[in-house]
Amino acid sequence: MGDxxxxxxxxxxxxxxxxxxxxxxxxxxxxxxxxxxLSDVLGEIDPKHAVDIREELPEQTAKRMLNLLGILKYKPxxxxxxLSAFRQGLVTGSKSVIHPVLHWLLQxxxxxxxxxxxxxxxxxxxxPAEFLQDDTVADFNKQYEELMEAFKNLHKEHEQLKxxxxxxxxxxxxxxxxxxxKDQLAKRVEHLKKRVETxxxxxxxxxxxxxxxxxxxxxxxxxxxKQEQKSQxxxxxxxxxxxxxxxxxxxxxxxxxxxxxxxxxxxxxINFNSYLVTEKIPREMExxxxxxxxxxxxxxxxxxxxADLTALESEINEVNAQINQLVEKRMIKYEPxxxxxxxxxxxxxxxxxxxxxxxxxxxxxxxxxxxLERQVEQRSSQAxxxxxxxxxxxxxxxxxxxxxxxxxxxxxxxxxxxAEITAEYGILQRxxxxxxQRHEAIQQQLQAIEEKKGISGYSYTQEELERVSAVKSEMDxxxxxxxxxxxxxxxxxxxxxxEKKASxxxxxxELRQLRQNCQELTQECDEKKIQYDSCAAGLExxxxxxxxxxxxxxxxxxxxxxxYRYINCMKRSLxxxxxxxxxxxxxCVSPDPQERRRAVREQxxxxxxxxxxxGKKLREKQKVVRESHGLNMKQMKMWQDFEQLMECKRxxxxxxxxxxxxxxxxxEGGKDRLVL
Length: 676
Description:
The protein is mainly α. Among the domains are: 1-123, Actin-binding Protein, T-fimbrin, domain 1; 199-256; 477-589; 591-620. The protein has helices at residues 2-13, 23-27, 31-45, 58-71, 80-92, 95-107, 109-122, 129-132, 135-164, 168-197, 202-256, 259-300, 306-333, 342-386, 394-453, 458-467, 480-588, 593-597, 600-675. The longest helix is centred in the C-terminal third of the chain and has 109 residues, at 480-588. Residues 137-232, 309-382, 483-563 form a coiled coil. It is found in: Cytoplasm, Cytoskeleton, Cilium basal body. Keywords: Acetylation, Cell projection, Cilium, Cilium biogenesis/degradation, Coiled coil, Cytoplasm, Cytoskeleton, Differentiation, Phosphoprotein, Spermatogenesis. InterPro entries: IFT81, IFT81_CH, IFT81_N_sf.
């Protein structure tokens, strides 16, 4: 706070204020003196506010200062309650309010002076919509906006010229230097003329030099034209090359395709473009317009404090709670489960969303393809300009890309096969391991059974029999008895195996029943999944409907807000008109004749008197014209008759002269005959 007061006192003691304050004297200023000091600072920024606050009411002073501070975009600290306290403190001249304002104004006086100057011409006067329906008012408003834009451009040019650093002194110095150079060149030319006059045939040499200069200029222009022709030729060659590639591609497409496929492709493109034009783009435009409308509303609104945001959040929460209540009531009143068309609507909504997603993917792919084509063209042109290695044509590049794609496909296919083989190998290894473990378990069980039955080593013996089957014939006589015993044991083992099979039969039957139950449960799971999907689609549809209702409520809220803004604008315009009427009344009852003369009523009274005098003069002139109209018409008729009479006399005189000349000629001819 001390630093703030120190800064304010230092600025007020400097030009143009020169108050000679100290910290003690400044702190001891009363509220009226603080308000006058603030008015003086505002008057330094905007000369219209250099007034004595004792000559106006406190409400007028506060209103005037608040308007200027709003134009200068001063943001008081605090919440809504603090804003009301700020207004009250500005009316009463509170130090806690005046000191921060003075500190903010004195920090950026030059910037605020420029802003106030521009505000005099750029603060737009809001005209109500019903007044703009009048053609005259609309024309004046349009002219007003055009003049405002012209002022903006002129101010920008003025600032740019100020920033550019050009001054009149520098321009004058440059002009003086160029005039001196001009005089020096003129002297050199005179000196050279004098030197050349002494040379024989100097006129012829000058003429040859002039022709040489003209030819050089012509050579330069021809070289420039040649360069331009080369560049144009290069562009034309590129166009021809692209056209040839396109023609070749079209020929290949026509050769490789049938009319049915072309028609199908064209129909698909037409359907896609019609979908974009009729559904997707209008929807996007509508959403963009809505977002722009809301953004414009946000920009048009004044700066919001934390309290405003808190109030808006509370309002939003209340509106959301009301929406939820309405939705619950609607769901209770209209149960969508009984609707026969709910499933079809759900499917239609799902399909429409998928369609929109695919359309966006296709559009993005087309944009990416067009951007890649432009990049390829740019790279090819750059390579051609750099005269590097030969660049592949579009057809060759497509063939190269197709080869790469085929190789990539072949590589992916083989890689997939390798992955499948690897997976199968792992499965086989696991199967082998399981079979080995099972074999070992069976061997252990068999050994246990053999030990239990007293025939341990049977399996080993069987393996040994198989191993020595090659020498079986030689040992038949030696082991005949053993083979009989072993055959009996084999029969016993087969009987035991059959018995085990019989004991396992009910287990297998039960296993089949369990498999059947598993299939039934799987089918029931699929049905439940279908029901879940349909229920989810129904909930999605309900959510979309709720979103539409919320959107409608938001639009209604926006409409009500716009009506509120419109009513505020009307109120503001009526206040301005009332203020103008008060000023007019004040000017009319003012004892100052100059003030009364500036009143609108006096001006219109003078204009009416001038028009009445002019009308009176015109009526008198009309009366004189009407009175002299008959005589003037009669006189005009007499002059016309007189003109006809004079023309007749002229014709008679000319005829008489012609007859006299003819008679004279005849008389002279008679005299000549008599003489002969």
